[in-house]
Amino acid sequence: MTRILLVDDEPELLEAWSFALEYVGHSVDRARDGREALEQLNRHRPDLVITDLMMPGMNGEDLCRAIRQNAEWADIPILLHTSAYAGTPVNERLWDSFLRKPARLEVFLTTIENLTRG
Fold it and tell me: Where is average pLDDT lowest: 51-60, 72-81, 90-99?
């Protein structure tokens, strides 16, 4: 079973995507912002992190940077799922894949499958 950490500050979206992911057999941990996500990462290492970009407290870009800078987590695939502009410095590879919100369910699940195949 693939363990996914889903990070988004919109409760309805967090609930809907969690339900969809659990329905197809994934285990889902949830966080409402980057700080909460780091706490979850310290408890359980996920196989994939899916994060929004614009969140209060610690945003998605800062979360991705923190994951990439931690030797224990640096190889965890990250899917950025956001409606915001996602520009990042060329020399930084902060996420592995990007989907614009709202992504179609089939595209969302296929992207997850591709990122977790190993």
Answer: 90-99
Long-range CB pairs of 115-118, under 8 A, 24+ apart, other chains included: 115/48, 115/77, 115/79, 116/2, 116/47, 116/48, 116/77
Domain boundaries in the chain?
3-116
| Overall average pLDDT of the 65-87 stretch | 91
Write down the pTM of the prediction: 0.93
Please give the CATH architecture assigned to the domain spanning 3-116: 3-Layer(aba) Sandwich (3.40)
Two tokens, residue 55: 């969140």
The encoded tokens of residue 78 equal 């990250």
